[in-house]
Amino acid sequence: MFAARAARQTFGLFQKRAFSASSSQLSKVAVLGAAGGIGQPLSLLLKLNPHVTELALYDIRGGPGVAADLSHINTNSTVTGYEPTPTGLSEALKGSEIVLIPAGVPRKPGMTRDDLFNTNASIVRDLAKAVADASPEAKILVISNPVNSTVPIVSEVFKSKGVYNPKRLFGVTTLDVVRASRFISQVKGTDPANEAVPVVGGHSGVTIVPLLSQSNHPSLDGEARDKLVHRIQFGGDEVVKAKDGAGSATLSMAFAGARFAESLLKAAKGEKGVVEPTFVDSPLYKDQGVEFFASRVELGPNGVEKILDVGKLPEYEEKLLEASLDGLKKNIQKGIDFVKANP
Ligand code: NAI
């Protein structure tokens, strides 16, 4: 509480400057889980983003420390840390345009993302309740795994509070897209900046479907293609293994999360044609019982502007998609059932 107040006073000067701008130029971004492995570098990247005018950093421990540290960086945004005091979380959230949620436990070697469900489901449910109460208009970016289940958890909580707007809820799958363009560039010896691979489906194992047929290298096939698809689907395991018990991807995830937040902020300011693959409440496969699906989504001032379909797929990718839909259906139901049983 005290630290939060002190941080606010210290940066009052910057705040004044920010408030002299018109309200449409003000963008408060809150990070829940800001002191964690992802939260810290993500907050650093957001501090460097000129679209962000106010950064609210909440964690069950360590928020004010991270905020004090970042607040010395000479960019124009204010940074305030919040702790789990009775009003800490709601103060962090109030007035936020974007709320990023990387709170929760990461994987250890041998674990799947689904193994995190028991711990992270209740963390995300409780944070979602707070967002629904304090900033129901915010765009929510869910990073905490298993994303395939935590996004439906947020939607159920919002529905139960009567504030659900599917246009404003996003599962962050950007890291799969970042990995796909990097990995294909390594296979082809190209610059990853020129590689774009749409990745659709969900965010774990076989639910991740890279559409190489829509990349710059549609003719990739045989063992090279199979290996690349597998690496994109299970790239996270490489990091979990290399960190040897110390967690999963944090730095590349922070990069991916910051990129997605930046895309939303640009779209909110009226930039047209901003498209990012993301896991959203989607009409594409609802007739097959799949309520949420990641595909390329055009972003706009209200969040989701237009959900793009996956296009015509070759047989190989159709098979991958089938396996993805099957897995997604179960993961999504698990999230919905959790909130029904543990409201
Ligand atoms: P971490 O353990 O380093 O950090 C998590 C932070 O959350 C900690 O600072 C902890 O104090 C905080 N926290 C726990 N409960 C909280 C609560 N109720 N409210 C606020 N903060 C709370 O974990 P890391 O590596 O940052 O990973 C976070 C999550 O992100 C994990 O679930 C991980 O699986 C997921 N992840 C998602 C990716 C994606 O592509 N969507 C990629 C990599 C990780």
TrEMBL record:
Its EC number is 1.1.1.37. Gene3D superfamilies: Lactate dehydrogenase/glycoside hydrolase, family 4, C-terminal (3.90.110.10), NAD(P)-binding Rossmann-like Domain (3.40.50.720). GO terms for cellular component: mitochondrion. The keyword Calcium does not apply. GO terms for biological process: malate metabolic process; tricarboxylic acid cycle. Residues 173-338 form the Lactate/malate dehydrogenase C-terminal domain. The active site is at H203 (proton acceptor). InterPro entries: L-lactate/malate_DH, Lactate/malate_DH_C, Lactate/malate_DH_N, Lactate_DH/Glyco_Ohase_4_C, Malate_DH_AS, Malate_DH_type1, NAD(P)-bd_dom_sf. Keywords: NAD, Oxidoreductase, Tricarboxylic acid cycle. GO terms for molecular function: L-malate dehydrogenase (NAD+) activity. It comes from the Eukaryota. Substrate binds at R107, R113, N145, R179. NAD(+) binds at G33, A34, A35, G36, G37, I38, G39, D59, N120, I143, S144, N145, M253. Residues 28-171 form the Lactate/malate dehydrogenase N-terminal domain. It catalyses: (S)-malate + NAD(+) = oxaloacetate + NADH + H(+). The keyword rRNA-binding does not apply. Belongs to the LDH/MDH superfamily. MDH type 1 family. Homodimer. NCBIfam families: MDH_euk_gproteo. PANTHER family: MALATE AND LACTATE DEHYDROGENASE, MALATE DEHYDROGENASE, MITOCHONDRIAL. This is Malate dehydrogenase.
